[in-house]
């Protein structure tokens, strides 16, 4: 039988998994809203972000309460602190889905995404969904190998992000400046979403192995800011 | 005389102020590197980000050590947890300065910023410096009114950010897609830098008053993602 501390920690872990579910649902709906110029769907994503924020507040209060009541030390202490960091990442992932929904809303009744980039955005949406599902599985299983597989999924996202820049800078871009600005921002939101997911997975690895993955590998290429895989 | 716990907390607070100093210096040099297409300066900003990351790691270790040794509860506990969140914000501010330096490096020997937007970027650089200096002062003084003044500085940054979009989308943009992409990203980095500074100030207010400022006020306007004043 588990003691009170580890029971509480299990509860926190379940909340984190629930946050991945909400962030994934938000991102999936935001992608559809963006591609279909679906205003109602966009509004629903924007409104629902409140729920992820609430969940984070609850989780952080549980964690602080646990620190105060149980006074954990060593690994137990690090687990609680790390859970709070994961909740910050997951809340941010919800924000990024909301940002994408806002771009959809801003350009309604048009779609912000010109036809030439629709396949790339569809792929980014799928990749984001895959990544956040894997993140939930990793929090649940604490499987280090599964966590490492997430780094590869993030590489796929980075490749899609580069594809956006390649399309924009190919010299044949004829969709105007507004569309260029929109896809630049949207591309960055998807990429950051994946970065935060990887950050969550790295925290799981850290909890299991005590070692923090190399967080600042430079990714060569045309784009900038791809090396965002850091702790924030 | 202060007890061991509050002495340690003072030390952590001093480290946070030092982090604002480093982030401010990085941002100031990144702005110069960007405007002057100064490769060496850009490289030095990119390399120096390591120092901010180190400081954050040290600070977090001090905080975790303090939790383990002193087992604080109630307000004392919240102070330590909040300090760790501040260090995350400040580390991220360093990352954003590094991103700007990377744009400078990517476009060297050209400047990424076309003449029409130089005055706006100069202003954003100044605003960023002002904001981070104020952030350091607020951490030191824990003055709630000073913290609230930071919200206004952030409004000034948001206005500059909108100015970039207005210039891009005025219909008279003739600087090409690459420059549009660069200034879109650079503008976002400055804006996020200010957001994180405001987030630090809000945490100070929270520590003093126990109340968390409204974090999600919508800013109407042409741009997207301006309502990023959240906890991450």
Write structural notes for this entry.
2 copies of one chain form a homodimer. The first copy, chain A, has helices at residues 4-36, 39-70, 74-107, 118-141, 144-168, 176-209. Chain A has 232 residues and is an all-alpha fold. Chain A has one domain: Phosphate transport system protein phou homolog 2, domain 2 (Methane Monooxygenase Hydroxylase, Chain G, domain 1, Up-down Bundle). In chain A, helix 4 runs antiparallel to helix 5 (144-168). The longest helix of chain A has 34 residues, at 74-107. Chain A is elongated, with a radius of gyration of 19 Å. Chain A starts with a helix and ends in a 23-residue tail after the last helix. The interface between A and B is large, with 42 and 42 residues.
Q: Tags for this entry?
A:
homodimer; about 230 residues; mainly alpha; Methane Monooxygenase Hydroxylase, Chain G, domain 1; about 80% helix; elongated; disordered C terminus
């Amino acid at each position: 039988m588990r003691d009170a501390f580890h029971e509480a920690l299990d509860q926190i872990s379940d909340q984190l998994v629930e946050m991945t579910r909400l962030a994934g649902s938000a991102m999936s709906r935001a992608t559809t809203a963006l591609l279909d110029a679906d205003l109602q769907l966009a509004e629903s994503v924007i409104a629902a972000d409140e729920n992820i924020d609430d969940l984070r507040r609850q989780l952080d209060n549980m964690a602080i309460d646990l620190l105060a009541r149980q006074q954990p030390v060593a690994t137990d202490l690090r687990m609680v602190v790390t859970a709070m960091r994961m909740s910050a990442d997951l809340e941010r992932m919800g924000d990024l889905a909301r940002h994408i929904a806002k771009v959809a809303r801003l350009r309604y009744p048009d779609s912000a995404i010109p036809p030439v980039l629709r396949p790339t955005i569809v792929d980014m949406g799928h990749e984001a969904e895959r990544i956040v599902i894997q993140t939930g599985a990793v929090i649940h299983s604490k499987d280090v190998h599964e966590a490492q597989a997430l780094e590869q999924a993030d590489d796929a996202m980075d490749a899609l992000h580069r594809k956006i820049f390649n399309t924009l800078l190919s010299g044949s871009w004829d969709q105007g400046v507004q569309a260029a600005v929109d896809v630049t921002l949207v591309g960055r939101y998807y990429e950051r979403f994946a970065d935060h997911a990887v950050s969550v997975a790295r925290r799981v690895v850290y909890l299991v192995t005590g070692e923090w993955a190399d967080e600042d590998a430079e990714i060569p290429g045309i784009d900038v800011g791809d090396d965002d895989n850091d702790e924030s």
